[in-house]
């Protein structure tokens, strides 16, 4: 199974890549105008190596694969600085946060090409496209409204009444970070391999 390799980044002799579980994101800055501004720092995502493959479809004419995986439970934590409008509330705060995601689906669109080198054609990936489809989510943002206990509780309740509002704001930035890392890891894993070696007839 590839799960331990994803966590460790060790894919065999000469195939070492950064581990993806836990997956760190140093910083995400999201500015959608006056209604939503958020900075996330020191973010760590745990649980991605526990994926379950739901569907694989090979697309031979386009040299690629469409893959859907399920992440049973994913934990995300880090630091936030937030200013957003939700349910007639102006939420502001700065501090640590935790997020638990359950039953998340990730759809991958993977395309490859053959790179000529020294008389051979080597396997290489185009930038991997991916998209999250979130199901259950539970946020906890500490220190909302400067730590006022009552307002902090109200703020977290407002977020968790419809957590997808906040998730959809940060989703594109998360996807962009993961696309870059996964493409780099995938190309490291198949480095110096031909199509015949990886996809024999």
Automatic annotation (TrEMBL):
<dbReference type="InterPro" id="IPR010562">
    <property type="entry name" value="Haemolymph_juvenile_hormone-bd"/>
</dbReference>
<dbReference type="GO" id="GO:0005615">
    <property type="term" value="C:extracellular space"/>
</dbReference>
<dbReference type="InterPro" id="IPR038606">
    <property type="entry name" value="To_sf"/>
</dbReference>
<protein>
    <submittedName>
        <fullName>Protein takeout</fullName>
    </submittedName>
</protein>
<dbReference type="Pfam" id="PF06585">
    <property type="entry name" value="JHBP"/>
</dbReference>
């Amino acid at each position: 199974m590839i799960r331990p390799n994803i966590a460790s980044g060790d894919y065999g002799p000469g195939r070492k890549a950064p581990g993806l579980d836990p997956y760190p994101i140093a910083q995400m800055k999201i500015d959608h105008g006056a209604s939503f501004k958020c900075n996330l720092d020191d973010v760590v995502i745990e649980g991605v190596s526990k994926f379950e493959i739901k569907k694989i479809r090979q697309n031979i004419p386009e040299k690629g694969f469409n893959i859907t995986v399920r992440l049973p439970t994913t934990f995300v934590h880090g630091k936030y600085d937030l200013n957003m409008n939700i349910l007639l509330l102006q939420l502001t705060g700065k501090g640590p946060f935790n997020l638990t995601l359950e039953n998340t689906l990730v759809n991958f669109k993977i395309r490859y090409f053959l790179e000529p080198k020294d008389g051979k054609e080597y396997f290489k990936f185009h930038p991997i496209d991916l998209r999250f489809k979130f199901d259950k989510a539970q946020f906890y943002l500490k220190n909302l409204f400067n730590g006022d206990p009552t307002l902090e509780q109200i703020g977290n309740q407002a977020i968790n009444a419809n957590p997808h509002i906040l998730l959809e704001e940060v989703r594109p930035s998360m996807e962009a970070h993961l696309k870059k890392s996964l493409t780099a890891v995938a190309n490291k894993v198949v480095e110096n391999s031909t199509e015949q070696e990886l996809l024999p007839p």
